[in-house]
Amino acid sequence: MHLTQRDAVSCGPAVAVVAGALLDPGYRRKLVGRDEHTVGAAGRAWFSREQGRIHLTVNRIWPRRYGTTPMGIARAIGAHSARYGVRYRWRLWWGRRDGLADVLAAVDAHWPVAMLLGNVIPRHWVLLVGRDGALVRCYEPSSGQVRTVDLAAIRAARLTNVGYPRPFAFVLPRSGSSAATRSATA
Questions:
Q1: Do residues 105 and 117 touch, judged by C-beta distance below 8 A?
Q2: Contact 102, 92 (CB under 8 A)
Q3: Burial state string for 74-101 with b = 16 or more CB within 10 A and e = fewer than 16
């Protein structure tokens, strides 16, 4: 769909909008209209405005120029997962010993998972949207593309095609949620 972030600090809100569209059919219709497959000019304009609205909503205290916090992303995505009785939370990446079991379980159950990346400091949000074995599909908002990343690259902090190499945090459904799986078409 080539949905790109509206400015240099809107990767988090772009990820939150795409996650919301994956989780909530009514919200998705604002983006794609009746077509359900194509984003037209009206959908792109809505996508840009919605990024701004989310940024204002979740960053009431945090300065906008520093992007969006993990707590803010969890709130924004959680607004759309609540219809399934599921709340989103955030957690730190545990380094190279992180098995990512909770992240992979969520992705395998069709829940989008936001991942905060950077070098020395956190700088960029992407969205894990699916998996084929050791390859994870990842929406990257600065390009608007869905790219494939190797699970081993996430674990080793050696990502190459999503902006930055190192994960810092994940925003995912709380474990023990009442809805363990979700239909891919919701």
A1: no
A2: no
A3: bbbbbbbbeebebebbbeebeeeebebe
* pTM, 2 dp: 0.92
Report d(CA 151, CA 56) in Å as an integer: 33
Choose between 72 and 182: higher pLDDT.
72
**In CATH, which superfamily holds the domain spanning 11-173?**
Streptopain (SpeB) (3.90.70.50)
Helix (H) or strand (E) holding 92: strand 88-92
Write down the residue that tokens 């009785």 correspond to.
85
Residue whose structure tokens are 């799986």: 181
User: pLDDT value at position 65?
Assistant: 80
Q: Provide the residue ranges of all domains of the chain, joining segments of one domain with +.
A: 11-173
The Cα–Cα gap between 36 and 67 comes to 30
127-182: pLDDT as tens digits: 999 999 999 999 999 999 999 999 999 999 999 999 999 999 999 999 655 444 55
How many angstroms separate the CA atoms of 160 and 137, rounded? 14
- What is the strand order of the sheet 166-173 is part of? 88-92, 166-173, 113-118, 122-132, 135-140, 145-150
